[in-house]
Amino acid sequence: MASATSKSYFWKGFRDGTPFIFVAVPFGLLFGVFATEAGLTLVQTMAFTSTVFAGAAQFTALQLLQDNTPTVIIIISALAVNLRMAMYSASLTPYLGSAPMWQRAFAAYLTVDQSYACSIVRFEKEPDLSVPLRMAYFVGSVTPITPLWILSTYLGAVLGAQIPESWALDFALPITFLAMIGPMMRTFAHVVAALVAITVSLLTVVIPFNLGLLIAGCAGMVAGAQAELILERRKTRQ
User: Mean pLDDT across the stretch 113-128?
Assistant: First the structure.
């Protein structure tokens, strides 16, 4: 019975994660094309996308690499872009933290924007789910994306210039994040963090090496945290 229930939650996650393939595939194709244009070999491209498995960080590092940015800045920028994964992990810990170590390690590798967005919404809606059911759902939510991400990267790297510019694959990145951010603007603190980050990123666009994005991200996190503290204090006073 438990196995069947876990299976059902795996397929629930699979269904919830499936719509993201419509942006993951062109996103992967685009990365494959850009990587080969930047001079990476097919082996290097596939190793990059399989080990890092973080599209935004991969694009950030690749763009900075093309701009001949110092290696230290590339590493710091990629880590900063992926810093949100640490926040995702902290957010998921109350739900998955008691799972066996190997499962948590596996989940850490599979933690991407899509799997987090699907899972945190499900876990908050059904707080009484057992850890095995949560883990089954989490893995299911990223299952349709992972193989297609790697396959599409391979196809993009192999096909390269043969993909017509009219396909406009670069739409995938902003569409992906808009699709995930919209439903997650659930509290005043979320909105404040987003607005501050957007404003600061626009004001710091002239800073070289895209360092303005790092500043904007930090400003957004600080603003969101402060907004949440203010709301908590008001609740306490009431």
Answer: 90
Residues 231, 115 share a domain: no
Both tokens assigned to 175: 């569409």
> What values do phi and psi take at 82, rounded to 5?
-85, 0
Last residue of a domain, one of 144, 169, 194: 169
State the DSSP string of 160-178: GGGS-GGG-GGGHHHHHHH
Residues found in the chain:
238
Range of the domain at 67: 2-169
The whole-number pLDDT of residue 2 equals: 45
147, 17 Cβ separation under 8 angstroms? no
What Rg value do the Cα atoms of the chain yield, rounded? 19
What is the DSSP code string of 39-103? T--HHHHHHHHHHH--HHHHHHHHHHHHTT--HHHHHHHHHHHTHHHHHHHHHHHHHHTTS-HHH
* Residues near 96 by beta carbon (within 8 Å), at least 6 away in sequence: 103, 104, 107, 131, 134, 135, 138
Note the pLDDT of residue 91: 87
Amino acid letter, residue 61: A
175 in a structural domain: no
Q: In total, how many domains does the chain have?
A: 2
**Residues 71 and 161 reside in one and the same domain:** yes
